[in-house]
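Retro notes
What went well: the complex prediction finally ran end to end.
Inputs used:
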Amino acid sequence: MEASREADIWLDRLRDRLIAIACRRLPSDSVEDVVQDAMRIVFERGLAERQGETETVDGYPPVAWCFQVLRNVIGNYYQKARTLSRETVLDDALATPSGRTPLEMLESSDLARTIKEAVGLLEEGDPRCGRYLRLLMGGSTPSEIAGDERLKADVLYRRVYRCRAKLRGLLEDKGILV
Amino acid sequence: MNEQTSNDGRRERTAAYLAGELSNEERRRFEDKTLSSDDLASELYSEINLVESFREIAGDGKRSRSVGRPTIPRPVRSKRRLVHIAVPVAAAILVAVLLPRLTGDGERGEAPVFRGHRNPGQPIAPAGIIENPPDSFVWFADPNAHSYQFELFDSKMGLLHEETTVDTMLVLGEGSPKVAELRQGVWRVSSLDENGDLLTRGEATPFRYSPAEP
């Protein structure tokens, strides 16, 4: 009984966080539908009951996996909005509360171009970051780059993380919420 | 300065968390804090979003999305009658036959609704743990629907297949994902009006293929 109550509390907390994330990326009337879909997937996986014991789900830490589920559901939402809606409806549907354009709504070609442009900008001020990110975009894995750079994988991973944080800042300056 | 140090520490922990370098206890603490803070949750989500975007650009682990929307087949009158009579009967039989098999050991009950009451979609089968890979998907008719949009996702809700039909059953054809290889997935049916616009978005229904031991 106690375990069940803990699971319910965990699910409630997760839902609150997913709602907050979704609110910044979706029209308000779609937030609950999208989060509901994500929560059903999480529930069916039984993570809430095994929160302390499950180390990874599909190779990701549990909460990171839950966030990935939300990311995919949001991506599906925007794909659907493009497919189902006509031009005028689409304009309304894609407007976010902040007026910013979420990364999820970009066409894949636009997304690639936008990120590459931002990496180019980043490279001007931080050549090493630019190099790491270009290698990642070219399909190299962090462990391959670490080998080439003669770095431990965890050191490289943290450097790349900082580079991505800088990139996020540049994208947000362009009005793109990541 | 302190804020900078704090941000650096937070980023270090986020990086270590995603890299799987934290101990189980550290991971639990990190997740506990993340679930208590919108800022931390947002930071983690943004990082995951960017990591996945890079993977998609590199063509590694890209999000699978069906492109293009299939045309809606024009129903023939007699076929529509068949749909209205035969399919509900077939669906009822399927419910009677399949439902007992879907309640295997250790299966959780029906997922709770995490928000207000809703009643869309109404999928019938497959759902839960199934012993045979499903070659068809069945759902209840929606009296207001002119057609239905079927979607099949992987376990992380990445879209694998999308198709529009006027029937309440869909058989996966050539070129569709092989459910036996998929092992687990999620499907959803949404009701569309005569213009093909969304009427009701269906519930996402997970299933897991778990072949019985010989």
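What we learned: Chain B has two domains: 2-58, 77-209.
What to try next: split runs per interface for comparison.
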